[in-house]
Structures are given as structure tokens and as C-alpha cells.
Design goal:
The chain has 380 residues and is an alpha/beta fold. It folds into 2 domains: 33-239, TIM Barrel; 255-349, Lyase, Ornithine Decarboxylase, Chain A, domain 1 (Beta Barrel), CATH 2.40.37. The protein contains 11 helices and 19 strands. It has helices at 32-46, 56-60, 64-72, 84-94, 111-116, 126-139, 160-164, 193-206, 218-221, 351-357, 362-368; strands at 26-31, 50-51, 53-54, 78-81, 99-102, 120-123, 143-148, 174-180, 213-214, 231-232, 255-267, 272-273, 279-280, 285-290, 305-308, 311-316, 324-327, 341-345, 374-378. The radius of gyration is 24 Å and the shape is elongated. The chain starts with 25 loop residues before the first strand and ends with a strand. The structure holds pyridoxal-5'-phosphate. It comes from Mesorhizobium captivum. The modification N6-(pyridoxal phosphate)lysine is found at residue 56.
Length: 380
């Protein structure tokens, strides 16, 4: 009936799952083999350019250490996190091998912690540059860093005026691994902002010491070779999010989310369903309540459906914290029972479909997924 009792694949990660399958209300399956295949597909597009892996927000919610280990098997040895704290955790998990860069830079006074963990800052301001040079002088070593310039997103990185004002010796003691910037509209290939940012990036990096360059995120890779430079920084595409919205997804799906049926029941016409009775049965209905709710990261206002063996089972009534009621009348009587699993993300309903129903993006769906799931890593 379902694969609820399929044997667990072996896993090498201590934190692979803190909740057993029997104890969890939902099961998140993460296909590390698909992540590796997605990395290979991006590398093929990049030709000679290197390809890093972006692991911020715990690998977009899927487990930064597990994803990094999978990518390292494909030869990936440069990773990005957003925060120093994420970098410290990742360094412990990975050991001293790969380069780990902290995208949001270091807050004042945290330089020694970055040094102790062997992490490289992305330097976003002249003040951060000065602080990292001081750290370098204190240790008597040249210290690695990436330099980020703002080519037109107004988020992170040195502004053009700040770059221009840098002294000739501003980078003494710094080993500039690459100069980078980030695209604001890469998922809109016809948006003229892309070319404008690329030209601004060219101009800004011309004012800096010669170093390799990095501009493209996932969607940026699909803008073509002029955007590839020396290093690409994909996140979303590795995790199966479509980097080319509006066109078929060139990536493999990576996640499957299934929730367990806690109870089934039949109700009469007119029965009030869920909090606030926002829904009343228009006729006799068969219902299933699943152990999954807004506390698991499913937006309360996102009307949607679950699927079972290709049959759509619409949500009825309000989404509760720990449960959702499904109309299962489309299934034969007895076709779904307690402990069976219904699909929330998977072959019948893609991550991008779910995001579309919720009025958001796949990135937010993934990073919202809660901590109560049994996590199953496959394709190891
Ligand atoms: C998040 C991020 C990326 C990865 O972006 P995706 O769209 O997930 O590929 C790359 N670079 C920077 C600076 C980022 O913040």
C-alpha cells in the first residue's frame, strides 16, 4: 500500500535523523545521488569553470554536512555558507580539507573565531577588509578571503565608490582567492539588469588586484558563458529547484516529503471541518487526518493537496499546527489507512508546484521544512 515499512538505507551520518521512522509524523527523503547528478549537469554547462556548492541555511534545509560530503565525491572543494556559525559547524563535520567561505562576512570582533575554524570571509566592506588585514598581521600570515563588490543588487559587497577609494596597498597581507558579485535577476534571462550587472562587475574588478572571478548563482549558469567566469556558486539547482523558471526543469528532483495518516473517518453532509469550521461537507465525505501541519513548515494559508498513488487528495478546512485534514473520497473505501504515507512533495507534486501554490519560491519551502521529520538519505 505504501513504502512505510521499507528498510532504512544505511547512513554514515550521526545526525542523519534524530527521529525514528515509527516516531515521526512525516518522512523527508533526500537523494544525495540526485544532488551529485545535478552537480555533474552544472559542471557540464560550465566547461572549464569551477563549481562550488552553496550550503547556507543548513544546505537549504537538507543537511549541509551530508550535502557537502556528497559533493566532495564529485570533486567539489569550495563551499559557501551565509554565517560564521554555519561555517564553524560545517568545518567540524568536514575536517580541514575544503575551502569554506562566509558570504555575509565577519561581524566585528569575530575574526579570531573564523581563523580558529579555518574559514575564509567574503569581505563586503572596507572596514571588514581592514579588520581581516589586522588579523593577518597579528598571525604573521597572508590570509585568504574573497572580495565581494556590489554590481547592482544593493545588498552585500563594496559599493563602487568604496572600491574606487581603496588605497593601492589595501590588499597587502590578503590572499584574494576571487573577486565576486551576485546577480539580482538571474532567473529572468531577458532582464537587462543581468548585462548591466555583468558590465559593472567587469569595471569594478578592473580596479582590484588581478584575481579569479565569480558571478553566477544557479540561474546565472544558464545565462551563458559570459557569466561563468572562474567559479560558479550554485545552491538551488543542486537541490532540484528549477533554475530556469517557465521552462522545463533541467535538474533532477532531490526531495520527497511524505506524511503519515493518523486517522480516517467518514462524515455526513453539513459536517464542520477543522478550526473555525471554514469548510462544511457538501455531501458525505471520507476524510484522512495526517500528522503534518504548519509547525512542519507548510504555510497555513497555502491551500493545497496531498497525493496517494497518483490521486489528488485536497486539503479541507484549516491547516492546524500538527495536522491537516484531507478529502480522500476519490479513493476506494479502505484504500488509505492509519500509518499509510501520502505524498506532499514528490513525483506527483514537485517542489516548485508546492511553492507556486503557496505563492512563494522553492527556496523558502525547503528552508522552512521543520525539524520533526524522519530524515532518510538515499543515493549515498
Ligand atoms: C544564495 C547565494 C548563492 C546561491 O544562489 P542560488 O540561487 O541558490 O543558486 C550564490 N551566491 C550568493 C552570494 C548567494 O547569496
Amino acid at each position: 500500500m505504501s513504502d512505510a515499512k521499507a528498510p532504512l538505507p544505511p547512513t554514515t551520518f550521526a545526525n542523519a535523523s534524530t527521529v525514528s521512522e515509527a516516531a515521526a509524523g512525516a518522512i523527508l527523503t533526500i537523494d544525495l545521488g540526485a544532488i551529485r547528478e545535478n552537480y555533474r549537469r552544472l559542471k557540464t554547462r560550465l566547461n572549464a569553470a569551477h563549481c562550488a556548492g552553496v550550503l547556507k541555511a543548513d544546505g537549504y534545509g537538507l543537511g549541509a554536512a551530508q550535502v557537502a560530503s556528497a559533493l566532495m565525491k564529485e570533486g567539489c572543494d569550495i563551499f559557501f555558507v551565509a554565517l560564521l556559525g554555519e561555517g564553524i559547524v560545517l568545518r567540524k563535520a568536514l575536517g580541514s580539507g575544503p575551502d569554506i567561505f562566509v558570504l555575509n562576512g565577519l561581524s566585528p570582533g569575530s575574526e579570531s573565531q573564523a581563523l580558529a575554524a579555518g574559514l575564509h570571509p567574503v569581505i563586503n566592506s572596507a572596514a571588514q577588509l581592514k579588520a581581516w588585514r589586522e588579523a593577518a598581521r597579528a598571525t604573521g600570515q597572508r590570509l585568504a578571503a574573497a572580495i565581494q563588490v556590489d554590481s547592482g543588487m544593493s545588498r552585500l559587497g563594496m559599493a563602487p565608490a568604496e572600491v574606487q577609494a581603496l588605497a593601492k596597498d589595501a590588499f597587502d597581507d590578503i590572499d584574494i582567492r576571487f573577486v565576486m558579485s551576485h546577480l539580482a535577476c538571474a532567473d529572468e534571462p531577458r532582464n537587462p539588469a543581468n548585462e548591466a550587472q555583468r558590465l559593472a562587475f567587469e569595471r569594478l574588478r578592473g580596479m582590484l588586484p588581478r584575481a579569479p572571478a565569480s558571478l553566477a548563482n544557479s540561474s546565472g549558469i544558464f545565462l551563458g558563458a559570459p557569466y561563468h567566469y572562474d567559479l560558479a556558486r550554485p545552491g538551488a539547482a543542486l537541490y532540484g529547484i528549477n533554475p530556469t523558471p517557465g521552462e522545463p526543469n533541467p535538474m533532477l528532483p532531490v526531495v520527497r516529503l511524505q506524511a503519515k495518516v493518523a486517522q480516517t473517518r467518514e462524515v455526513e453532509k453539513g459536517a464542520g471541518i477543522g478550526y473555525g469550521h471554514t469548510y462544511h461537507a457538501r455531501g458525505p465525505l471520507r476524510l484522512a487526518t495526517i500528522s503534518f501541519g504548519y509547525a512542519d513548515g507548510w504555510h497555513r494559508r497555502a491551500a493545497s493537496a496531498a497525493w496517494f498513488e497518483g490521486v489528488r487528495l485536497p486539503f479541507v478546512g484549516r491547516i492546524s499546527m500538527d495536522s491537516i485534514i484531507l478529502d480522500i473520497s476519490a479513493l476506494p473505501a479502505g484504500g488509505l489507512g492509519e500509518g499509510d504515507l501520502v505524498e506532499l512533495i514528490g513525483p506527483s507534486q514537485s517542489l516548485d508546484d508546492v511553492a507556486g501554490h503557496a505563492g512563494t519560491i522553492g527556496y523558502e519551502v525547503l528552508t522552512s521544512l521543520g525539524a520533526r521529520f524522519h530524515r532518510r538519505y538515499v543515493g549515498i
